Every structure is written in structure tokens, then in C-alpha cells.
Automatic annotation (TrEMBL), chain A:
Protein name, entry field: Uncharacterized protein
Species: Methylobacterium gregans
Domain of life: Bacteria
TrEMBL record, chain B:
Keyword DNA-binding: yes
Species of origin: Methylobacterium gregans
GO BP terms: regulation of DNA-templated transcription
Entry-linked Pfam families: cNMP_binding (PF00027), HTH_Crp_2 (PF13545)
Domain of life: Bacteria
Annotated gene: fnr_3
Keywords per UniProt: DNA-binding, Transcription, Transcription regulation
Domain HTH crp-type intervals: 153-227
SUPFAM superfamilies documented for this protein: cAMP-binding domain-like, Winged helix' DNA-binding domain
InterPro entries xref list: cNMP-bd_dom, cNMP-bd_dom_sf, HTH_CRP, RmlC-like_jellyroll, WH-like_DNA-bd_sf, WH_DNA-bd_sf
GO molecular function, one term: DNA binding
Name used for this protein in its record: Anaerobic regulatory protein
Length: 84, 248
């Protein structure tokens, strides 16, 4: 399982525009958004704006950096050591 | 600590009940003579917990409280917010095991009323029992509205709806006026109450402010454009069943 990131700008309708599409083996599995200065203590963190399939999550988490976000996503994908 | 009557504290309960029904002089006197034990509690403290079998009910005199449940991974769902005059665990009078918890949100002053005193009151005054029943039915109506919000309203309408509801509840017991009220809750509280993330709450509050509908400052909510706020919320106050609500 290898993840591939592709930077995009996303229209959240807020200053949270810096985003990364996350692909796993060519499939889009998540959209991560970097939180803008609007978010105070959370500014600069990465938010799971959308997740697909096993990455869909009813309580979308926020990550300190992209490495942490990718580790979380990888763990939820089939083939991960602790996948469902 | 022994229970003693405290008419001043109990006037908050009278005010609440009179916001939803009429009390006779005799009924009012009986309520004001209830034995109570007043206690000041810090913020974020449990008052009763899921699984408890309380022998008293908790009347909020000052501050805010919330009912909640904890689900997997420690995530909290806030089920309702409570303000002075509310008895959030009134149901423990007849449903003996708590199926959720009740905690303070802010520093809170509460009055504990023994179940036996409430049972005696409702036996002697069936109309008071009917008013408590009415209160629990309104409680259920509020739950229906929250369920509708969480299932079908977008975040913008969901937050707007809660703001309209809390303002009218506070106004009904004389704690708010002119579309301005205290709102001593955090963005995390809002997220936990409305099934949203902190990020989404923050974005949505900015949108509500940006659209000029509300101002939030120092734990105060000002509904700058009440009509537009109610419109955004699709807010119809019928479910609160307030007796003497002033027109919007």
C-alpha cells in the first residue's frame, strides 16, 4: 500500500483552502485540508475534510502533520496490519 | 446537610413552571416551601452519572448544566443544555436508574430536592404533577427538534437553531432580553451537542458572524438580526410551548 499526495486548492468557502488529495494505489481515499489561522490553536494542523470507503469517519480527526495523517489513513486501508 | 425550604431559591422553579403553565397561589406556596439543599458546584463536574439511582432531583439556580452520554473512544454526545429553573433529572422521580449523566457546564448553583418531597407535592397537588408532566413532554419535544437538526439540518441551520432555542428559553425565565443572552459554552460543547467537529463549528460560527446574523463576545450571544437567524434555522418556537412569549 503506497499513498500518493497531490496538492490542490479546495473551495470550503473559508480561508481553509490548502489541501491534499490522498491516493492509495491510484484511488482517491481522502481529502486533507490545512487549517488556516482562523482556527487559533489548531492553525497549521491537517483536518480530514473527507474520507472514502474505510477512511470515511463520522468524527473526522485533526492531525499535527501530514505524516501523522498518512499513518492514520494507512492503518484504516485494507492490507494494513490492523485493518478491519 | 439537612434540607430546608428556601423560597428565594425556589422562586426560580416557580418562574420556570409559570413560563409553561398557570399556578394557583396555593400551588405556588407549596412549591416555595419545598425542602432543598443548596450547593455551589465548580464547572465541568458531574452531578449525577449514568447508572446512579438518585434519591433527589437537581434544580438549577444559577449557571448552565448539560445532559450527556459517552460513547466509544471517550467521545461525548451532549443531549441537552440546562439553565436556571430547569430540573434536568426530573425523570429520576419515576425512572429510577439514570440512563445518561448530568454535569455542570459553568460554575453552577443547584438546589437538591428530595424525591419524597416532590412525590408528596405532586400527590397533594395533581395540577403540579400535570405541569411536571407537561415539562417532560416539552423536554421530549426539544429532543425531537434536536434529532431533526442533527439528522437533516446543515451545520449553519443547526447552530442557528440552537441559538434561537437557548435565547427563548432564557428569555422565558427572565434571563435574557432584546435578543441578547449569556452563552457560556465552548466550541467543543457546541460540537459535542450538534454532532459536528470543532473545525466545522469554528467555520460555521465565522459564517454566521460574517453574514451579520450574530455577535459573540465574552460569553454573550447577540442575535443582531433575529428574523434572519430564525429563518436560517427554520426555527418555529411552537415546540417550546411557552405560555407568554413576547413576539419575536
Amino acid at each position: 500500500m503506497s499513498l500518493h499526495l497531490q496538492p490542490v486548492r479546495i473551495a470550503t468557502g473559508t480561508p481553509d483552502t490548502e489541501s491534499q488529495l490522498v491516493f492509495a494505489d491510484g484511488f482517491l481515499v481522502a481529502v486533507l485540508v490545512r487549517l488556516s489561522d482562523d482556527h487559533g490553536d489548531m492553525a497549521g494542523m491537517w483536518y480530514l475534510e473527507a474520507g472514502f470507503g474505510p477512511v470515511e469517519y463520522s468524527f473526522p480527526p485533526t492531525f499535527t502533520n501530514l505524516d501523522e495523517a498518512q499513518a492514520w489513513i494507512e492503518q484504516r486501508l485494507p492490507g494494513a496490519p490492523h485493518s478491519l | 446537610m439537612p434540607s430546608a425550604s428556601n423560597p428565594h431559591a425556589l422562586s426560580m422553579l416557580v418562574r420556570k413552571l409559570e413560563s409553561i403553565a398557570h399556578l394557583s397561589d396555593e400551588e405556588r406556596e407549596a412549591i416555595l416551601s419545598l425542602p432543598i439543599r443548596v450547593q455551589a458546584l465548580p464547572s465541568r463536574q458531574d452531578i449525577v452519572r449514568e447508572g446512579d439511582r438518585p434519591s433527589q432531583c437537581c434544580l438549577i439556580l444559577d449557571g448552565w448544566a448539560c445532559r450527556y452520554k459517552i460513547v466509544g473512544e471517550g467521545r461525548r454526545q451532549i443531549l441537552s443544555f440546562h439553565i436556571p429553573g430547569d430540573i434536568p433529572d426530573l425523570q429520576s422521580l419515576h425512572v429510577h436508574t439514570m440512563d445518561h449523566s448530568l454535569a455542570t457546564v459553568t460554575k453552577t448553583t443547584v438546589a437538591f430536592i428530595p424525591h419524597r418531597a416532590l412525590l408528596d407535592l405532586t400527590t397533594r397537588f395533581p395540577n403540579v404533577a400535570a405541569i411536571f408532566w407537561r415539562d417532560t413532554l416539552i423536554d421530549a419535544a426539544i429532543f425531537r427538534e434536536w434529532m431533526t437538526s442533527m439528522g437533516r439540518r446543515p451545520a449553519y441551520g443547526r447552530i442557528a437553531h440552537l441559538f434561537c432555542e437557548m435565547y427563548l428559553k432564557l428569555e422565558a425565565v427572565g434571563l435574557a432580553a432584546e435578543h441578547r443572552c449569556t452563552l457560556p459554552i465552548t466550541q467543543t460543547d457546541l460540537a459535542d451537542a450538534l454532532g459536528l467537529t470543532n473545525v466545522h463549528v469554528n467555520r460555521t460560527l465565522r459564517a454566521l458572524r460574517g453574514d451579520g446574523l450574530i455577535t459573540l463576545q465574552h460569553n454573550t450571544l447577540i442575535a443582531d438580526r433575529w428574523d434572519e437567524l430564525t429563518e436560517a434555522a427554520e426555527f418555529d418556537p411552537t415546540y417550546l410551548h411557552l405560555e407568554n412569549r413576547a413576539a419575536g
